[in-house]
Structures are given as C-alpha cells and as structure tokens.
Design brief:
There is one protein chain. This protein is an alpha/beta fold. Helices cover 35% and strands 14% of the residues. The radius of gyration is 14 Å and the shape is globular.
C-alpha cells in the first residue's frame, strides 16, 4: 500500500461538515498514531454541522474545534486510501491509490437523532477499514 510504515487515509464529502468529519474523528481515535488521517470537501461549509458535533460528543469524541477544509490535489496525492462519501466526480483520480466510495446518508439538515445511525455505521466501517489495514483498534 504505502512505502511508509504509516498508511494515510483521506475522507472526502461535499461540505466536509458531517460524514467525512465523523470518519476522520473515528479513525483518529481508533487508529491513533498508526494511521495518518485527513478529511476535506469539494465545496466545504463554513462550519461543522452542530448536530454532528453533538452526535460525536455522545460517542465520546469532541470535534467542536474542527473546521471544514477544501479538497486539494496534494491531499489526494499524499494519501494511500481515498474514501469518498457523495462527492461524485469532484475527487481527483490518481493511479495507484486505493479508492472506496461509502454510500452513506447525508446528515445535512438532520437532527442528532437522525445522525446517530449514520455515526454508528461510519464507526462500523472504520473498524473494518482498520482491519483491512492490519491495524488493531485502540478502543
């Protein structure tokens, strides 16, 4: 996968305010320093969705200081795995990268109760990704 000992994963969604932020937070929590984590959006929002922040707080993860970031070619080039979540063709493609597309409901405009199942599915997929990368979750 990577020539370095630490794989790098980039999560991409449109606004980088919900799904990709949750995924990055779970991978950071469960992968620790054994994986590099990035997230970005093809059209980033101004802030992370407050209901997403609350849903993650319920899971014991504080993402209140996170800010949406713009997707750059450099971020894709420097990642081993690129996981898209509804960004369509906005994500640049580079040969040799591993691309996954996670079809997940968009939490935009939804309350915390509706976001909980999305959050839980993202955590499940992150645990599967860690297994694929040969990394034992820290929690």
């Amino acid at each position: 996968m990577s020539t370095s000992a630490t794989p790098s994963v980039l999560f991409v969604c449109v606004h980088n305010a919900g799904r990709s932020q949750m995924a990055a937070a779970f991978l950071t929590r469960l992968g620790g320093d054994r994986v590099q984590v990035r997230s970005a959006g093809s059209a980033p929002a101004d802030t992370v969705n407050p209901a997403v922040v609350e849903a993650m707080r319920e899971a014991g993860i504080d993402i209140s200081v996170e800010v949406p970031k713009v997707l750059t070619t450099e971020a894709v080039q420097s990642s081993d795995v690129v996981i898209t979540m509804g960004c369509g063709d906005a994500c640049p493609y580079f040969p040799g990268k591993r691309y996954l597309d996670w079809q997940l409901e968009d939490p935009a405009g939804q309350g915390t109760a509706a976001i909980r199942p999305i959050r839980d599915e993202i955590e499940r997929r992150i645990r599967g990704l860690l297994a694929d990368l040969g990394i034992e979750p820290t929690a």
